[in-house]
Amino acid sequence: MTASPSTHPRSGRMLTLDQLRDDIRRGDIETVIVAFTDMQGRLQGKYLHAPYFVDHALGHGVEGCNYLLAVDTDMNTVDGYDMTSWESGYGDMVFELDLDTIRRLPWQDRTALVQCDLARTDGQPVPMSPRSMLRRQVERAAGHGWRAVAGTELEFMVYDDTYEQAWERGYRDLRPANQYNVDYSIVGSARVEPLLGRIRREMYAAGMTVESAKGECNFGQHEIGFLYDDVITTADNHSVYKTGAKVIAALEGKAITFMAKPNEREGNSCHIHLSLRGPDDSIVFWDAERRTRTPLYDHFIAGVLATMRELTLFYAPNINSYKRFAVGSFAPTAVAWGMDNRTCAVRLVGQGASARLENRLPGGDTNPYLALAAMLAGGLHGIEQELPLEPETTGNAYTSQAPHVPRTLREARDLFAASDVAKAAFSEEVVRHYVNFADVEIEAYDAAVTDWELRRGFERL
Asked: Which of 7, 62, 171, 306 is 20 to 30 A from 382, comparing alpha carbons?
């Protein structure tokens, strides 16, 4: 079963179905991965023998167990989800192939990837699938005549240890690829360029438009940037990049992590830049004659801010996410906006066609589909309700009186569970699903005995 072709722009380096058929016939492609993005933001799916993909999967579809949207980070089946359980027998869901997403994976020999939406066996979309949730907000914006474009800036740490060595050491005492702050350092980046350069080249070959790489603040921390695109394309590329970067690092004998706060220094962010466009890509966030923001833009910003606390679960989905929100860390603590102010959760940048808001709340562990869906849902709520934009925060937002971002996953979970905006945008069924997702993580964390507790209490208590 194949999905209808989407309307988002395609890179010329990606493949049409006819090109994929030709590559398979010549033996240039031997494996086709069909994959979707799960709740945790990971690509999950199957490796199909390429002739089988052409002869059978294209016409008859691919299926997988519905527990894939109802597991914890360790892939354990857990209770509490409406869509799947032992009682219901853990049935199937259908991987609906999006044939606009066919791309070669240069880091895997003779392999192509097709990304998928998820449907129930009756053909109805799975509403809690992250890609479906973002698509629903895209369709909501389209109903007003708008198209959303976005870019994600994803930071990661590089270690001169393999993933296997990191596991054996309990992820402690790893060797960062840089031993000091290499923010914008040409020398610091050059030391890691064999890895960074390979990631950039192979992402470009996989159909992405790569902008640059730069060092960041933490030891061994770097960022590779990509050109903005429509929001679904950006989320698709983000998922492929994050997966591919880990694979390439492993092939280079290194390990990288995107977790929000792997140590007590600066964490990994995922700043999201977003704007709306009108028909024919016209500018709707900027009044060229008055050289200022439009009322539409102000309403959108107001909506993102008004819903930020209650939708934080989609920006910061893990226990560790909340360790990143520290004063003076360049991660926000204040739900506030400012012009080119990196101490605020929302930073406004650009003029004219480049006018956009930067959401600085998400970390490197965010699920791009959920974060973008939350931003769109909040912004559209602000437009539809004509919410007024609060005064700009100038100076240091860390010391302002602005509302604080949620401090824990538990707080974010409670705000999300009570959110009328979330229920209206995503449905009560979806809200229940992701509340249970948070409950599962909180319960697992509460039951864990950490090394911090052992150090503090083994002898002294």
From this structure: 7
